[in-house]
Structures are given as structure tokens and as C-alpha cells.
Amino acid sequence: MHAGTREEVTVALQAYTAGSVERVLRHAYKLARGRRRRLTVVTQANSIQAHSIWTRIACELSAEYPGVELEDVYPDAMAARMVMEPDSIDVVATTLWIGGTLSDLLGAVVGGIGLIGSCRINPGRRFGLFEPAHGSAPKYTGRNVVSPLATFRALAMLLEYIKEAPSARRIEAAIARAIATGGIRSVSTRGPTRTTEATDAVIACL
């Protein structure tokens, strides 16, 4: 309202339904139960009232997952922990805009988003989209300069999702070995190792 004046006011709407939040948190609990049994819910509930539904439903569900430790952390504290104590983090549940920022921060912590796979799934149905976290870059098509590692890690996530965990672990181990032995010299999206070189290095380690 009153655009272009000193009295201009902007308003943003954040809407979350109990059903969708519960569906996401149940999926997060199940993931945590199969990993290190720790779930961190990241919200700004201290200043954004709409976020309180996340912490409230997470607490309500905790009784159904007694083996999973639940904690509630604000985004600034979570950002610091990702840098200082990344090993303390297991499964994180958060909103889209907070998660978008934290995922890029985590990519920087591990050396670049060129190493990060991603997936978008519907927990209630068995389908999803698996892709590199950095998305596509059509302008680099055919130039042999983009790291394939995030794509390989997205493939590992897909394999794990369809209950092919041993194959997923093989891919993860091959990537780690290719980096450790110098076959891949950077994990940035555009490092000194060419696309075909990195691919060959991972295949050789497989």
C-alpha cells in the first residue's frame, strides 16, 4: 500500500496447513529413526507466529517416535552449528525459505554445491524428482566443464529411496575415493577437473 511514499507498507503471507506440516514431519521422523535418531526442527517461531505450527506438531508427534531426539533451533543458531559443529546434525525439518538458505550454506561447508544432490518427494506417494542441488545450466551444454558429482549423488539418493541402499553406498564411496586419491581436484560446480575426467574417475573407483 502507498507505493513509492514514505508510508509504503508491504505484507507477506506465510500459510501452513496442519496436514502438510504433519506429513513432512512424519517423514523426517522416519528418516531420523533410520539414521542417527536426531531430528532438528528449524523455525523462526519466536518472531513469526506462523512457524509455531511446526514446533507444536513436532512435539505432538514425538511420542510416536520415542527413540528419536527432538530439538528446536532458530535459523541463526543453526547456521552457526552447520559451520562449527556439522557432525551434530542428522535430519533437519524446516520451511522452504529457511531451508533454501541453509542448504547453500551447507554446500559451502563441504566445499561447494557441486557436491550436493537433492530430491523433491511426496512422502505419501512413491515418486519424486532427484537432481543436483544447483539445478541445470544450459549455457554450459557441450563444454565439458560442469562437475557431475551432484548428479551422481542425486542418483545415490534415488537408489536409497527405492530400497537399493547398497548400490547407493557404492556410489557415495566411489565419489569419496575419487576425491581422496586426487582423481577429482575440486567439488565446486566448475572446477579444474573436466566433466568426462570426473566421470571416468568415479567409474574407475566403482
Q: How are the strands ordered across the major sheet? A: 2-1-3
Shape: globular
CATH topology of the largest domain: Rossmann fold
Tell me the helix content: 40-55%
Q: Label the CATH architecture of the largest domain.
A: 3-Layer(aba) Sandwich
Task: Please work out how many helical segments DSSP would assign.
Answer: 7
How would you characterize the overall build of this protein?
This protein is an alpha/beta fold and 206 residues long. The chain has 2 domains: 11-109, 3-Layer(aba) Sandwich (Rossmann fold), CATH 3.40.50; 112-206, no CATH class. The protein has 7 helices and 5 strands. The strands form 2 sheets. Strands 2-1-3 form a 3-stranded parallel beta sheet. It has a two-stranded antiparallel sheet with strand order 4-5. Strand 1 (38-42), helix 2 and strand 2 (69-73) form a beta-alpha-beta unit. Helix 1 packs across helix 2 (52-61) and helix 6 (165-180) packs across helix 7 (195-205). The longest helix is centred in the first third of the chain and has 16 residues, at 18-33. It is globular. The N and C termini lie far apart (59 Å).
Question: Brief description of this entry?
Answer:
This protein is an alpha/beta fold. It has helices spanning 18-33, 52-61, 75-84, 96-109, 149-161, 165-180, 195-205; strands at 38-42, 69-73, 91-94, 117-121, 128-132. Helix 1 packs across helix 2.
List the helices and strands and how they pair.
Layout: H1 18-33, E1 38-42, H2 52-61, E2 69-73, H3 75-84, E3 91-94, H4 96-109, E4 117-121, E5 128-132, H5 149-161, H6 165-180, H7 195-205
